[in-house]
Design a protein that fits this description.
Length: 199
């Protein structure tokens, strides 16, 4: 009987320890990002045989891990690093529940952040142009002009950084966010035994 009670007590203690485990902190995520920077560059260079492409992937990986990662859905280091521009992320933070598959998901997370950010930049640029035109008496821009501007920016980037620049940048962003998400998945699996919310 005493042995059974000891085993039950030990099991309860083990469960209590697991429940008290905290998810990885911002410092942990930053440390993992910095630790994986060199391997990311090496893997990119070996895979693409292109130094500029490897540099783009690595820069995007750092940016994705430190400033463009899943924790933009809460008051986090990533969120506060945007300083006065963090207001751009307030609707995103208010709309998405923390650690939902839409922010932390391996499949949708980075893609939705890119779409959101491009949308916010477009709306903000349009608002600034509209206010400036209204104030100065100039021509108010329309959607066609903004579309042309984005196309021109895209052409400039491709001409100066290569045809695969956007894909390389997205891959880097995704890898930076994925390192964060995979770390959270490990913590969630240890603590709760589930990972489906991250997929």
């Amino acid at each position: 009987m005493f042995v059974v009670r000891c085993r039950i007590s030990q099991t309860a203690t083990d469960k209590s320890k697991i429940q008290n485990l905290k998810m990885p902190s911002g410092k942990t995520h930053d440390a993992i990002t910095f630790f994986l920077t060199a391997p990311t560059f090496a893997a990119s260079w070996i895979t693409t045989k292109s130094l500029p492409t490897a540099a783009i992937v690595t820069a995007a990986f750092l940016f994705g891990g430190l400033m463009f990662g899943p924790d933009l859905d809460t008051m986090s280091k990533q969120y506060t690093r945007w300083s006065i521009f963090r207001l751009l992320w307030y609707p995103y933070r208010a709309f998405f529940k923390h650690r939902s598959r839409w922010s932390h998901g391996l499949i949708f997370g980075t893609f939705l952040r890119v779409v959101y950010f491009m949308g916010v930049l477009t709306l903000l640029s349009f608002a600034v142009s509209y206010i400036f035109a209204a104030y100065s008496g100039g021509t108010i821009p329309d959607l066609v002009e903004f579309t042309r501007t984005w196309i021109s920016i895209g052409e400039f980037v491709r001409q100066n950084f290569g045809e695969s620049a956007f894909i390389s940048f997205f891959v880097g962003l995704w890898l930076g966010a994925a390192s964060h998400t995979l770390t959270d998945m490990a913590g969630s699996f240890i603590k709760h035994g589930r990972i489906m919310e991250f997929l």
